[in-house]
Amino acid sequence: MPFLRNFIPFMVFLWYLPTFAKGTGPKPTYTVFLSTQISTHPRVGFGAEKIVKELVRLKYDINLKVVNYNETFKKAKGAIVISVVNDPVLNKILPEVVKKKALAAGKEGFTLTYTSDGTLYIVGADASGTLYGCLALIDDIKVKGKIPAKLNLIDHPQMVLRGTCIGLQKPDYLPGRDVYEYPYTPESFPWFYDKALWIKYLDMMVDNRYNSLYLWNGHPFSSLVKLKDYPYALEVDEETFKKNEEIFRFLTKEADKRGIWVIQMFYNILIPKPFAEKHNLKTQDRNRPIIPIIADYTRKSIAEFVRKYPNVGLMVALGEAMEGVGQDDVDWFTKTIIPGVQDGLKEAGIKGEPPIVLRAHDTDAARVMKAALPIYKNLYTEAKFNGEALTTYAPRGSWAELHRNLSAIGTVHISNVHILANLEPFRYGSADFIQKSVQAMHKIYGANGLHLYPQASYWDWPYSADNVKGRQLEVERDWIWYKEWGRYAWNADRNREGEVNYWSNQLATTYGTHLTAGKSILKAYEESGEISPKLLRRYGITDGNRQTLTLGMLMTQLINPFRYGLFTLMYESEAPEGEMIIEYADKEWNKQPHVGETPVQIAKEVVEHGKKAIEAINLASGSVTKNKEEFARLKNDMYCYNAMANAYAEKVKAALLVLRFKYSNQVSDLEQALPFLQKSLTHYTELVKLTEKDYLYANSMETKQRKIPMRGVDKTFITWKEMLPVFTAELNHFKRSIDSLKNNKTGTLTKVLPFKNAEVQLLSDFAAYELDTSGLVFSDTSVKIKEITEKLVGLKGIKFSKAVQINTGTEIKFTTTNRVKLLIGYFNEKNPTYLAAPQLETDASANNYGQSEIKIANAVIVNGFPPVNVHTFTFNTGSHTLNLGKGLCLVLGFIDDKEQIRIFNAGLDRRGRDIDWLFE
Fold first, then answer.
1. Rounded CA separation 566/135 (Å)
2. Over the stretch 252-306, which tens digit does the pLDDT of each residue have?
3. Cα gap 539→553, rounded to integer Å
4. Which residues pair with 769 in a beta bridge?
5. What distance in Å separates the CA atoms of residue 694 and residue 638, rounded to the nearest whole number?
6. Model confidence over 332-367: pLDDT tens digits?
7. Cα–Cα distance, 233 to 245 (Å, whole number)
8. Is the pLDDT reported for residue 229 higher than 50?
């Protein structure tokens, strides 16, 4: 019966569709030969169906012959044989030369070839290979307008996994929930239940030869499976649950016949809200150890998921919701996740192992893999290509070393093109940059897989940010993004001259113009495609999505990046060797030679790229005859890139002169900076005009995770128009600062008023100490404070055991009747002994208490330790428990939340004075 269910609908289509589309002219007749075993290969059937449709479109007469065990087929001109090389029916009658070619092609490979009798063979090494052979023939037919008279092609993909990603996540949090917590419901994700949209997306994937679709969600199991032991863990009602089952089965079936693995991603340890409430637990707690009931629930969830959806793989994110790197990662993966998969396989009677992809994010993936491979073989590793951005096609340093180490394990390593926070929302389609990036994945990282995020609007998928009536689908807007990455994931070593012609033809066809204009459009894409990568890698704070590059940056962020939690890995690994703005200024003052890519160089280059992008897009404008409205939006994006490039370039010139003042103390340096800052604002004002009517937002993540240029809470600071008053106020404050310096010759100092202690009741028995230069900071050592900023003197710190902090962590229990801030001091050095400061790049919960930003830099010096930066955690009235994880830190006391904290650098590290006051 399964044979008939799968085979009969396909046969009906193939037999009767051509009947209604017989050619009327003298065009030749083609006979398509298939095996009766086609029902066991839905991918072969799908490929054959597409070929028949294409030939019918060309008005050829089509016959279909199904060959069984006792038949042969007539070899002649006009015969098309579609088969898998090991098909039990056709294998024995396929020519040996054809079989050898197909087998030589390898996994997902195929041969597309004629034999001397005129028969055309499309034979794959496996079912996916046959499908791709069919698609290759269709591509050739579309270019030439007919079936080519000569064909002798053997082809296969370079990358083993070539996947795209869709997030079942939203721009903001659901009420009463935290980051990543989005049950699958029609209210949250109406598009998830749209079968037509899924078919459109899956067809895009197969046309671009993608073979894996990653669905991202914090905890999907409570929307997709029900457990006998934990019925209360289900997060959706019965009607929604049935819809979820139905659409998920539909999706996996449709994906499978297109050669696509659906891979469901989830975070650890994250649990559903009803389960958490039942057991009085948090849905996510980074510092929570492995609890037996959570492990049991998770294992059974995975087992039921694997049993219920056997064509689905899993992607595991051990980081963020677990405590970074440690033995818990190894234990959770090997004692909960993999056993859960194995339980499900056993229950379903499945022998093959579905793929499990391990994210290297915030975990020691090599260590985890070493423990896991002896018990499970079908494992993959994945790590971000350029963090959560696109910055360079020449990665280096420790990040490149991590990728190479994972590649050396012997399993397939996947490069993840993640979030793209510096590209959002403007269109991006630089074939040159993307081809070089994929080559770098192979040659620098040793990766053999691609995991691709949407180019923009990840958190708002399926829509783009464009202000188009009825909304615009991101997959349609960014067609070239998917097509370029897919093409180079298949083969990254294509000839550059040929690629220029290929993409120019694609663009000319899309916009109904000639090849010369197509080349101009490609040039506009490639010139603009250098701007955002160069800006972020030379001026940015982070490669993460807490920074929205296209919204601009504050002057304080350019001149004092460490205050904002500078993510140095971006400069050390995800950029060519070069200098930050602060390094360049220091070398200029000290007359030292510069090294590598410099801020001044990039300022000049991005302005030139913007100029050339506009010139190129304008050259093509007059000849466009198709998709005119979309072309107008593309053209506007080129002007946006140009305005942004100029705004940054002028602001960087101003920043370098402001930093010179830090050394010279000459107001004239600030006066020279002023016109550059004014020009920057002029260009930014132009960017506001270009985007005001055309874009709904700059960034699709509109939560407290966003910090740069401004903290984005409750959908604030998501447009350029909202940022314009901020940059205007910054300029005006700078003018007043210059006037004040010119008029204030006495250099009078404002008296520093220390913070006042807030009343809280500690619920644990810890000793307090007064913050001063004799304070003992740990209960089990004689280590004292050497220097301390006046703002902190007199606060009551809390002593913890140094040994306990390192081995167990820091837990603070207290009750307060007023809203308060808790001051925590983090040692400013990367070292496993020290508690890592909150970092949104690796921990999405790192700003849940407003703690991610340094409030006072270099505020305390403890004998024998690095300088201490102060962060604050804000708490409402009531009882609280704060777990800070393992590692040394200082608990510096409580202050009333109403106390104003002017962010500053106390300068106890002796690296220079704070000049942020010039702008705020």
1. 47
2. 999 999 999 999 999 888 899 999 999 999 998 878 888 999 999 999 999 999 9
3. 9
4. 797
5. 13
6. 999 999 999 999 999 999 988 999 999 998 889 999
7. 16
8. yes
- 370 pLDDT exceeds 60? yes
Residue 847 CB partners (closer than 8 Å, separation 6+)? 704, 705, 707, 838, 840, 853
Element (H, E) at 266: strand 261-267
CB 599 within 8 A of CB 580: yes
Q: Check if the beta carbon of residue 664 is closer than 8 Å to that of residue 592.
A: no
C-alpha–C-alpha distance, residues 154 and 489, integer Å = 17
pTM above 0.70, yes or no: yes
**Contact, 794 vs 786, CB < 8 A?**
no
Q: Is the pLDDT of residue 590 over 90?
A: yes
First-to-last alpha carbon distance for the chain, in angstroms, is: 75
At 766 the pLDDT is: 84
Q: Which two tokens stand for residue 141?
A: 């037919």
- Tell me the one-letter amino acid at 568: T
CA 402 vs CA 162, 202, 362, 384, 408: distances in Å? 21, 32, 12, 10, 10
Q: What is the DSSP letter of 174?
A: P
pLDDT for 179 equals 87
- Sign of the CA dihedral with 501 first, then 506, 509, and 511 last: negative
Q: Cα-flanking dihedrals φ and ψ of residue 683, to 5°?
A: -65, -35
**Alpha-carbon gap, residue 125 to 371, rounded angstroms:** 33
Query: Could you give the angle at the alpha carbon of 101 between the alpha carbons of 98 and 105, nearest 5°?
Result: 140
**Separation of alpha carbons 700 and 718, rounded Å:** 8
Phi-psi region of 717 (alpha: psi -120 to 50; beta: other; left: phi over 0): left
Q: What is the dihedral of CA 277, 283, 285, 291, to 10 degrees?
A: 70
Cα 887 to Cα 800: distance, rounded to the nearest angstrom: 11
Amino acid letter for position 313: G
Task: Using alpha carbons, list the distances in angstroms from residue 197 to 191, 208, 247, 258, 598.
Answer: 7, 17, 12, 15, 46
DSSP result, 636-689: HHHHHHHHHHHHHHHHHHHHHHHHHHHHH--HHHHHHHHHHHHHHHHHHHHHHH
| Residue 395 amino acid letter | P
